[in-house]
Amino acid sequence: MYRATVNKRGFEITYRDDKIMIDGTALDWDVTKISNQYFHILIKNESYRAEIIKADPVTKSFIIKINGKVYSVDLKDKFDLLLEKMGLNNGATGKANNVKAPMPGLIVDLRVKEGDKVKAGDALLILEAMKMENMIKASAESIVKSVKVTKGESVEKNQVLIEF
User: Fold this and answer.
1) Can you give the pTM of this predicted structure?
2) What are the strands, taking DSSP E only, across the chain?
3) Domain ranges for the chain
């Protein structure tokens, strides 16, 4: 499942029975790739020319022009949606104040200590839950103010693990 936001309007995109569904309705488009940037789209006998003006695969944001009209598109895949549901999407704010346990578990490894400078995506610790190791990563550039847990410690959901 994906969540697309087009010019601030949200859409749910799923794949069912070999068809792409947008908000539960089957997508009946004929799309032809002209080049890496240009596409021809046919919807109910109406022709559209699409151009990808800007694509940032890291942030999953795009600027697309369709028949001269510009659209801003932001995508979230199932992992982005899961992180958002667990409250771990605070990277969008640019600065994180702390990292909380997304689920109960056991701290099996700490990768940072007080005073360390971290960038978005850097590994902070490994939390074992339900026999799976989960790498907890920094959501933004920060300096570690304090580490509130130790290796081998059991933690509860929403317990503060690291403060910035």
Assistant:
1) 0.52
2) 2-6, 9-16, 19-22, 25-26, 29-33, 38-43, 46-56, 61-66, 69-76, 98-100, 105-110, 117-118, 123-129, 132-137, 142-143, 146-147, 154-155, 160-163
3) 2-78, 90-163
